[in-house]
């Protein structure tokens, strides 16, 4: 108790990094996208976060599909000299898989309906990028190389940063 007799405010429960990332992924659920699932995977195939909860889909299948996309994309990139990889889209009759480089460390993969427009998917992804940057603590990583399709120069600078 404080000296004035009031109780201190109750501490807010800390949210885990995975829960914060999953919450951001959940905001990709735009009606036009028909979002089936979203995962954040590192380049070693480790699943960092997923949406919806595991009871509603198998995130290991999504991570495996993402790994296959990355392997195929890397081979194609080297074969035809595409330059730096930014995203890969695979479209099927039942669904689409979009794998997007967040930075040199992780990939965002989303499974969406077969008619979902790519532009809307990229817009939805751009809306959650600030939260992903915060929850992945990207601003503290000295050597991160962001995907310039998603990030604008200065997005990873602290909000109180003032250039000299």
What does this structure look like?
This protein is an alpha+beta fold and 164 residues long. It has a single domain (17-140), classed as Beta-Lactamase (2-Layer Sandwich), CATH 3.30.450.30. The protein has three helices and five strands; from the N terminus they run αββαβββα. The protein has helices spanning 17-26, 59-80, 118-135; strands at residues 35-42, 47-51, 87-91, 96-101, 106-112. It has a five-stranded antiparallel β-sheet. Helix 1 (17-26) packs antiparallel against helix 3. The model has no long low-confidence stretch (mean pLDDT 78).
Write out key terms for the chains shown.
164 residues; alpha+beta; 5-stranded antiparallel sheet
Estimated helix fraction: 25-40%
Helix/strand-derived class? alpha+beta
Q: Which architecture per CATH?
A: 2-Layer Sandwich
Low-confidence stretches: none
Shape: globular
How far apart the termini lie comes to: 45 Å
N-to-C series of helices and strands: HEEHEEEH
Sheet with the most strands, sense and barrel status: 5 strands, antiparallel
- Percentage of β-strand residues: 15-25%
Per DSSP, the total helix count is 3
CATH superfamily: Dynein light chain 2a, cytoplasmic
Cα-based radius of gyration, to the nearest Å? 18 Å
* Residue-averaged pLDDT: 78
Number of strands: 5
CATH class: Alpha Beta
- Strand line-up of the largest beta sheet: 2-1-5-4-3
- The total number of structural domains is 1
Question: Any idea of the CATH topology?
Answer: Beta-Lactamase
């Amino acid at each position: 108790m404080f000296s004035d007799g009031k109780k201190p405010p109750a501490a807010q429960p800390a949210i885990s990094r995975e829960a914060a990332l999953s919450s951001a992924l959940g905001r990709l659920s735009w009606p036009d996208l028909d979002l089936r699932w979203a995962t954040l995977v590192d380049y070693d195939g480790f699943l960092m976060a997923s949406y919806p909860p595991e009871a509603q889909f198998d995130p290991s299948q999504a991570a495996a599909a993402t790994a296959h996309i990355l392997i195929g994309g890397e081979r194609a990139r080297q074969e035809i000299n595409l330059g730096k990889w930014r995203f890969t889209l695979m479209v099927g009759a039942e669904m689409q898989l979009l794998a997007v480089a967040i930075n040199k460390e992780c990939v965002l993969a989303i499974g969406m309906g077969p008619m979902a427009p790519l532009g809307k998917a990229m817009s939805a992804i751009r809306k959650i990028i600030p939260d992903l940057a915060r929850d992945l603590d990207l601003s503290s990583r000295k050597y991160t190389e962001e995907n310039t399709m998603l990030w604008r120069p200065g997005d990873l600078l602290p909000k109180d940063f003032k250039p000299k």
